[in-house]
Design goal:
Histidine_kinase_KdpD, disordered C terminus, 5-stranded parallel β-sheet, elongated, 6-stranded parallel β-sheet, alpha/beta, about 850 residues
């Protein structure tokens, strides 16, 4: 059975109708006789959505216990055993409850697809991993539950479920999305018109990019060369001259006028050696175009106008921006120039903009090197000069008698001109024809092939020798010039490749895309296999050409070692291009090895970190937990002994020792459990608006009375925190401060407001901590000086910082003036009523929140 197909309904925000559209599609398929089941769909109390579940088979969910509550999750094993044709799976980015088969729901979907089950799912734009920073800048909330972009990109169908912000807010106000008690908070926070508009634009642009990829693939597969102006895509032709910056800015302004405009700057390196560009200026222009949101491309081309037009049509461009020619007036005798040629040959599907600039008609200012391979026109003119020139010269010299010596010099000059124009063979033809005409018309006896005077024989011999020598020198110079130009073009490409590596642009796909662009190919793929008999596998590819199963099936294959090859499709490359291709292939192999080594290093680092945590945990259990256990056991044994008659005071003292030991054990185990939650990312803050003076006093219950004093003004603004996490963080900070404070010195806990933040300071007068150790004390199992006064495993400060960051705050250490250490806990001040807690204002499937690996569905079940 083949792999199943994935269809995704993508929405800009909760409530646009993704689940409704998915269920409607399920009813349509069921009516057509398709075996369709509901694997997991959450209607969130929306009556219209709930109605659509009627009539559809639902696979029973799996129940999981977590933190004393019962949750329901998708039962993957049951779905695989049922093996339907189509399965409906809501909320693709959902994080499963610990204990489920996979950590993420999209991983469950991958297993269904691998089993041949078609899946229909839903996801919001803010859940895409690559858009996390953008969504946070728009909404002010970091989305913790994400799905890799590649998972969504691989979907066979992506359908956008769209709704205007005004209509969505009306749905919210009518109670069609959230419960009535959450509507006001949602409308004033996440569902503000600006937020919804920006998220809608993100969704539209993302889907438009995917549509553009499908379009490019279709055009490539069907070899469509005509431009389809589906969106404005502007190509800027750069020469490396100073006018390039003006062209890039003009193109950026043109792109801004059209929806979804895109700028592609391209520099075409000529392989004929006629021009060269300043690498420094090209680097500046590359930076400029990337800063303006465009892309820079470097392409080899024999004919600059043709290469520019081929590139523009290859990327489906709609406009080309070129600068007015910098050539002087007399230089137009050599041709109309690139701009005029491109404008003439662009056809009706490409608009060409010729932009004026300050460098117009001031000269190219670039070094000129003549002749790589002599062009066809020069060779033709060389033959004309070599064959027709002597005849015309003979007619002229027959009318003007200048003497044999002068006649020989004229024919020699004509031979040199033929060599300069056409190379060796036209010069040889000119020398041969010229010597025959000299002998027949100007060497006595005239009109005969014989030569009477031996000195004339010597003159003709010298003439032929000089002509041949000059022609040979010109031909060798042309060959050397071609080689130098070719090497220069190759060095530009290799320098560009090295620059990419130095800039950190070492993505294998990006490198293969650069190979494809540089050589004008349809696709490029890096193939590898384990041994000589194993099948080839694709390690990475770029382009939309047909897939390549073996290197032999490609138009060009470049071996890299024994079991790796770079394969390109599109055309056959000349042999002289393979040197540069070999460099690209070697670099691709290095990038692949580097990526795998990095992945192995990450795995090794994770294993090492896990081993370190486990080792420290075992040490803590064997050492720090043994003392209170030994004390408890000794006290219990004493109380159970029949040999000693304990007084009431002794019995109370032993019981007090048991209680203290149990408290110490409870504190140690609590810190160990908290750290394990932080390490596994299962801390779920429930953000609420509270007063600091409601929580902080409760954190002092674990320290001796009178060891800490409070200074918390009643005028402080409320803070947006999780009360339980804040209390636990403050308790650890205060206990740590009391532990290291000198006897008789109290710990000060003070709070103050600063702009939109509230700072809580825990000040002690202990020995303090050097600057270089201030960050290290927050690491797990770290105890400064490793000489704590009292039991502990070095987790208190690590847990406090972890909880602070989970609530969106910070925890840092500072020196106390006069000696000691001050812990500064910075918290977010609550905004206007209803604005501080977008985390709890909406269900998980509807709005992002700060750090909630459990869905809002699970939270509601826990509350019940």
């Amino acid at each position: 059975m083949g792999r199943g197909k994935l269809r995704i309904y993508l929405g800009a925000a909760p409530g646009v109708g993704k689940t409704y559209a998915m269920l409607s599609e399920a009813h349509r398929r069921t009516e057509r006789g398709t075996d369709c089941v509901v694997a997991f769909v959450e209607h969130h109390g929306r009556s219209r959505t709930e109605v659509l579940l009627h009539g559809l088979e639902q696979v029973p969910r799996r129940e999981l216990a977590h933190r004393g509550a019962l949750f329901t999750e998708l039962d993957l094993d049951a779905v695989l055993a049922r093996a339907p044709r189509v399965a409906l799976v809501d909320e693709l980015a959902h994080t499963n409850v610990p204990g489920a088969r996979n950590a993420k729901r999209w991983q469950d979907v991958e297993e269904m697809l691998a089993a041949g089950i078609d899946v229909v799912s839903t996801v919001n734009i803010q859940h895409l991993e690559s858009l996390g920073d953008v969504v946070e800048s728009i909404t002010g909330v970091r989305q913790r539950e994400t799905v890799p972009d590649e998972v969504v990109r691989r979907a066979d169908q992506i359908e956008l479920v769209d709704m205007s912000p005004q209509a969505l807010r009306r749905r919210m106000a009518h109670g069609n999305i959230y419960q009535p008690d959450k509507v006001d908070a949602a409308l004033s926070n996440y569902f503000r018109p600006g937020n919804l508009t920006a998220l809608r634009e993100l969704a539209l642009l993302w889907v438009a990019d995917r549509v553009d990829e499908y379009l490019q693939q279709y055009r490539s597969e069907h070899r469509v060369s005509r431009i389809w102006g589906s969106r404005e895509r502007i190509v800027v032709g750069l020469t490396g001259g100073p006018e390039g910056r003006t062209l890039i800015r003009r193109a950026a302004r043109l792109a801004e006028k059209g929806a979804g405009g895109e700028v592609l700057a391209v520099y075409i390196a000529r392989s004929d050696g006629l021009t060269s560009a300043s690498p420094k200026e090209l680097a500046v222009q590359r930076t400029l175009v990337e800063d303006l949101g465009g892309t820079f491309h470097h392409v080899l081309g024999e004919d600059i106008p043709a290469a520019l037009l081929d590139f523009a049509r290859g990327v489906n461009a709609t406009q080309i921006v070129l600068g007015s020619s910098r050539r002087k007036a007399w230089q137009y005798v050599f041709g109309p120039g690139v701009g005029a040629t491109v404008a003439r040959e662009s056809g009706s599907d490409l608009d060409v903009h010729i932009v004026t600039h300050e460098e117009v008609a001031k000269g190219r200012g670039l070094p000129v090197a003549r002749g790589a391979r002599l062009g066809r026109s020069r060779i033709v003119w060389g033959w004309v000069a070599g064959l027709g020139g002597p005849v015309l010269l003979t007619l002229v010299l027959n009318t003007v008698h200048l003497g044999l010596a002068n006649d020989v010099l004229f024919y020699l000059a004509l031979t040199v001109a033929a060599a300069l124009l056409g190379g060796l063979y036209p010069a040889l033809a000119s020398a041969a024809v010229g010597s025959l005409l000299l002998n027949w018309f100007f060497t006595p006896p005239v009109n005969r092939i014989t030569i009477a005077d031996p000195r004339n024989i010597l003159a003709l011999a010298i003439f032929v020798g000089v002509a041949l020598s000059v022609a040979s020198v010109v031909d060798v110079a042309a060959r050397r010039t071609h080689q130098a130009a070719r090497l220069r073009a190759e060095s530009e490409i290799l320098s560009f490749l090295a620059g990419n590596v130095l800039r950190g642009e070492t993505s294998l796909e990006a490198l293969l895309e650069r190979v494809r662009e540089t050589f004008g190919m349809e696709s490029a793929a890096l193939l590898e296999r384990e041994d000589d008999v194993s099948p080839w596998t694709c390690a990475g590819r770029a382009g939309a050409g047909p897939p390549v199963g073996r290197p032999e099936d490609a138009d060009v294959d470049m071996p890299v070692g024994d079991h790796m090859a770079l394969a390109l499709t599109g055309r056959v490359l000349p042999a002289e291009d393979r040197r540069v291709l070999a460099a690209f292939a070697a670099q691709a192999a290095v990038v692949l090895d580097r990526r795998r080594l990095r992945e192995e290093a990450d795995r090794a680092r994770a294993l090492a970190e896990g081993n370190r945590i486990r080792t420290a945990l075992l040490a803590a259990v064997s050492h720090d937990l043994r003392t209170p256990l030994a004390g408890i056991k000794a006290a219990v044994t004493s109380l159970r002994s029949d040999d000693v008659e304990w007084s009431e005071e002794d019995r109370a003292e032993l019981l007090e020792g048991i209680e203290e030991g149990a408290d110490r054990l409870d504190h140690l185990v609590g810190n160990l459990l908290d750290m394990s939650r932080l390490q596994t990312g299962t801390v779920t803050p429930l953000i609420r608006e509270i007063d600091v003076d409601e929580v902080v006093p409760m954190a002092l219950g674990g320290v001796p009375e009178g060891s800490a004093e409070l200074d918390i003004p009643e005028t402080l603004p409320m803070v947006a925190v999780d009360a339980g996490l804040l209390e636990r963080s403050m308790a650890n900070l205060v206990e740590n401060a009391v532990k290291y404070s000198p006897a008789g010195r109290t710990v000060l806990v003070a709070a103050s407001a600063l702009a939109d933040r509230v700072e809580v300071r825990v000040v002690d007068r202990g020995p303090g901590v050097p600057d270089e150790a201030k960050d290290r004390i927050f690491e797990p199992f770290q105890r400064y000086g490793d000489v704590p006064r009292g039991a502990g495993v070095g987790l208190g400060l690590a847990v406090a910082r972890g909880f602070a960051e989970a609530m969106g705050g910070t925890l840092n250490a500072e020196d106390t003036p006069g000696g000691g250490l001050t812990m500064v806990l910075t918290l977010r001040a609550a905004g206007p009523p209803g604005a501080a807690a977008p985390l709890s204002a909406a269900p998980h499937s509807a709005a992002p929140h700060a750090a909630a690996p459990l869905s809002e569905t699970a939270e509601r079940q826990a509350a019940r």
